[in-house]
Predict the structure.
Amino acid sequence: MSAEEQLNKAKNALQNALKQENTKTCLDILDSLIKIKVNGELLKKTDIGKTIGKLRTHQDMKLSIKAKTIVKKWKDDVVRQTDKPAPTSIRIESPTIKKISPVSSQASSPKTPVMEGPPRTVKTDEVSFKSTGNVPRNKTIELMYAAVGFGSGADADLLLKRAISIEKTIYFEFGDINQDYKNKVRSLALNLKNKSNPGLRESVVSGELSVEKLCKMSVDAMASEEAQARDRKLAEEALFKARGAGSAQAETDMFKCGKCGGRKCTYFQMQTRSADEPMTTFVTCVICSNHWKFC
Ligand SMILES: [Zn+2]
């Protein structure tokens, strides 16, 4: 069965199940739908987005949550086809299909250094995290996200993981939102965001510098980490180039490029540090050539 047939069949089944108020069947159908990869054309042809879109406000929580998940996934599917603009007639109600701002709009501006894109925040990257239940702590996570994400092309999930981990480490060190906590947050944010510390940020994002270590570092130690990171980077640029020219690597949608938002990446793994440490994964975006690494 083609995807179009599958979608049409599911749509009819869903409408029947809804008429009969058979929530269980609806849930089953939604489960099967989430596995189907869609594109703008398919959505337009089948008009299934309208049915699913309505379900997002269904009184059954399970149903509405699942419908929301599907709408979100389909939007991502559509957005991922970055070469084609999404047709405007997709009937998923909220009209804001996220448009990816092409890197070129930034890169073409002569004032913008090549390495720095627009500032990245939890808002611009549309990431969400589980609240700590404490507003200042949540604010710290957002602040740290912007700090480690400054000029970074890494996957948003990776940045978020580091930001949460940094906050947690500081919080457990001081045990409370006291003056020491605030001072530490301020000093870390300043040093991480410092224009002359790109290597420090990268080391934290990649995991080469552990968050525990970072949180204990003096400003001098940070400067020395910066120098080491710069040396590593030189060696790695050569590595990326050599790899890129050589073997064909399989594409994956596991990662989301932090620069163009695309999900077409290739990756390879390599042992760059001592043998007892985990491998480093090098990811390259097929669309915009941005690359990052993590371990
Ligand atoms: Zn990219």
